[in-house]
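Bumping with the actual sequence this time:
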Amino acid sequence: MKLTCLWVVVFCSMILAWSGCTTDQADGPAKGTNQPCRLDELHLGDLVTITFSDLPGGVVLPESKARIKEDGTLTLPMNLSVLAAGRSLGVVEKEIVDLYVPKWYRQLSVTLKTEEKWYSVGGEVKQPGRQAYLGPTTVLRAIQSCGDFTDFAQRKKVELHRANGQREIVDCKKARTNSKYDLPVCPGDAIIVPRRLM
């Protein structure tokens, strides 16, 4: 009898523990979505200006521009390349220095600069288009910067396509009353507001 009671207690405890570990995806944002944007992260398609300095003997390498290719690499002078997409500017700068020093030069400093950051808003907004990323913003603020929703917008199923390929659905009706549903927008993201069914 005592053994049976013990098993019932253990079984109930396990059920309670498992049920406490689940989350309702419909009630909250997806896991990890409230992480701040990494403004120094490079993305596919970014145009990068590469400046070389501190070369010995008065050697001057011209500034060069290159776009990050579909495979995530950045082509450098002397036909070298480095993996850049999804990595920070500082990490890529260090790897470029390591490619040239000491094989080609005794010393070298590298500075990378990207073009203006942006995000885009399309679909059922009054002024769809590309917007300059000037600092931290959210889905609702991004939509407001495009003149707000049209009368035909499906506000409960706004799509947020991340630059890294991830896709999230935002319920903007909930987001207006509770900021935890208003997800951050990062450079390179695309917001699509679908048309609601009549």
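The tokens above came from a reply further down the thread. Residues 2-34 have pLDDT under 50 and may be disordered.
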